[in-house]
Design goal:
By secondary structure, the chain is α+β, with helices and mostly antiparallel strands. It has helices at about 25-130, 135-145, 160-170, 205-210, and strands spanning about 150-155, 175-180, 190-195, 195-200. A hairpin with a 2-residue loop joins strand 3 and strand 4. The longest helix is centred in the middle third of the chain and has 104 residues, at about 25-130.
């Protein structure tokens, strides 16, 4: 039998080579390495998650602080510049209202002036084609005289007197009437005098009274500027 326990002298050793022993269970080693890698990945993910949570928390806090700062600035503005702006706006509003009221007054006056001018045209046309319009005016003027009036002087435009004289004398046959033509009296008007009482039924006077109820001062005949 060969003796393997014999001491081997150096000269008998041809070459020496270092021997590395591989792990007996390679699968276990690989699993352990993977486990370490997985654990490191998990730790990395946890670290990243914490970082993201920190970022999110910081972002939310930043937003909250920004909102508080904005609210503070708004409050300061309202307390200072806002009140000043409000007063200025109120002043502008009052001024605008006043200007609008003035504009409305001007527009209203313009409408009334236009209406008066149209009324003049209508009345002039009516007087030129219908002399009967003077009869109600004359009756009203005669009715303003005293009840015991026995006589009266009536002044009319010559054209009106020519047409209405028979009608007037017939209607007021119980009175002693003096009918006088007066070119100073416009057609459609009359002037009645009795016992010191004068009733002005001229067209100009009636027109002035009519437009006065509208708050206007407008003469019947509007003067025309000379060129």
């Amino acid at each position: 039998m060969r003796n393997y326990l014999r001491f081997i002298p150096g000269e008998e050793v041809g070459a020496v080579e270092q021997w590395n022993f591989d792990p007996v269970d390679k699968a276990a080693v690989l699993l352990a390495a993977k486990a370490k890698v997985s654990e490191a990945a998990v730790d990395h993910l946890k670290e990243e998650s914490l970082k993201q949570e920190g970022y999110a928390e910081g972002f939310i806090q930043g937003q909250a602080q920004a909102a508080l700062e904005a609210q503070r600035q708004i409050t300061d503005y309202i307390a200072n510049e806002g009140q000043k702006a409000a007063r200025e706006f109120a002043g502008l509003f009052v001024t605008a209202q006043a200007q609008m009221a003035d504009a409305e007054q001007v527009m209203a006056r313009g409408v009334l002036d236009l209406a008066c001018e149209l009324a003049r045209q209508v009345v002039r046309r009516e007087l030129s084609i219908n002399t009967d319009t003077l009869q109600p005016v004359l009756r009203e003027a005669m009715g303003l005289l005293a009840a015991d009036t026995k006589s009266a002087v009536i002044r009319l435009n010559p054209l009106d007197l020519e047409v209405l004289e028979p009608v007037i004398r017939s209607e007021f046959a119980g009175l002693a009437l003096t009918l006088l033509p007066d070119e100073a009296i416009s057609r459609g008007g009359c002037l009645v005098e009795s016992a010191g009482t004068v009733v002005d039924g001229t067209l100009e006077k009636r027109w002035t009274r009519a437009v006065a109820t509208l708050g206007l001062e407008s003469a019947w005949e509007v003067p025309v500027d000379e060129p």
